[in-house]
Amino acid sequence: MSTVAAASDPAQLKSAREDIKELLKSNSCHPILVRLGWHDAGTYNKNIEEWPRRGGANGSLRFDIELKHAANAGLVNALKLIQPIKDKYSGVTYADLFQLASATAIEEAGGPKIPMKYGRVDVSAPEECPEEGRLPAAGPPKPVDHLREVFYRMGLNDKEIVALSGAHTLGRSRPERSGWGQSWTAEWLKFDNSYFKDIKQRKDDDLLVLPTDAALFEDPSFKVYAEKYAEDQEAFFKDYAEAHAKLSNLGAKFDPQEGIVLDGVAGEKSMAAKYSSGKRELSEVMKKKIRAEYKAIGGSPDKPLQSNYFLNIMITIAVLAFLASLLGNYGMPWQSLQHPLMYSPNCPPLFPQLPLAVHVFMETPSEITSSPFTINSPPSPLGASSALISDSTPSLTPGLFLNPFNLDVLISVLEVYNILHDKHI
Ligand code: HEM
Fold this sequence. Notes:
Radius of gyration: 25 Å
Helix content: 40-55%
Distance between the termini: 44 Å
Number of helices: 18
Number of strands: 0
Strand content: under 5%
Bound molecules: protoporphyrin IX containing FE
Order of helices and strands: HHHHHHHHHHHHHHHHHH
Largest sheet: none
């Protein structure tokens, strides 16, 4: 078995995903692949900083010593199923392959699209596996307390505990593995909200309800979410997708640090994902450009740039003056507004000028540097906004104005612009 600890290659990840889809079609192994991904990630301990001692999604579950932990009974079969794919793609780590297989299985079973990212680095030796006992037990004396103890240690909250438990809509438990029998739902290869409906109604005695499943409808805080998911599949899908992505990143070390996105927007923390509606997401080319420029001026995806407090204060004053001028002119013909930022004669008043103003700042960093109060109006208002959405977009260098923001916020600003203006940058 390979002990290479390099990260994954995007092209190979995509091909591997196609192979996983074929495997799912021929073997209907969705549930065990989901359990494999979860058990690799779920050993994470947020109280340990050091990688890989903190556990999590690092591919350690490929080693015998960890596969033999009681909680992992049967998962050797999942590894056997995907080992040929690992052998085919030397540029995909185990850590990524486990999470790719799990997310693909959820999606192929009819579940939501998971905003995944890749680039997880593998641990390289069995000595780096976590100790036994970090995963939850199914029949502990105090199920509610136990769930909180284990999932809080991973940094997950009540909503995420309930949403993730909904993965039991897939699969079965087997007496020879866990000691329990049956499936949680009648259609155990279909991902939907029937897990919550079935536990709530308890109509079918043949269906499994573990003590930790029942706890979701007993504890008042868990119950709020369990009831909601039983009623509203869309709400369940939304929360599940976010929680699954978060779970898949636990403890992982990414190379590159911001991870690799195969399609669309990734990241449980991404505000961009929250605001985008598919077609209005920034294109990959645009995101690459923003990232490159952000890095070029000393930013990193994880931490905001150093703030220039003087400039920020000046800009805040300028924005307040701008808002005051809007209020002052409220009710008057908008054409008469004379503020330098209100350069678009085709814009209706008040609201649309705000994102536009952000763009003026973003596209004129040098003017801002010399004086925030002498911003030149672009020669043609429409020219400025259309330049922003054309392929030949001039430099999007965020400039000093965006100093207090991190990369996610910057992307979100642009995506909010997309939504307000119905454009696709
Ligand atoms: C809340 C605490 C959890 C407990 C106590 C628990 C317990 C179990 C048990 C006992 C089994 C049966 C294993 C077997 O006999 O083969 C199982 C299966 C499964 N678990 Fe969980 N689990 C929990 C959370 C999760 C989470 C968070 C996920 C995924 C996000 C998950 C996904 C699955 C799946 C898909 C199966 C079916 C596997 C198959 O059919 O081969 N579980 N779980």
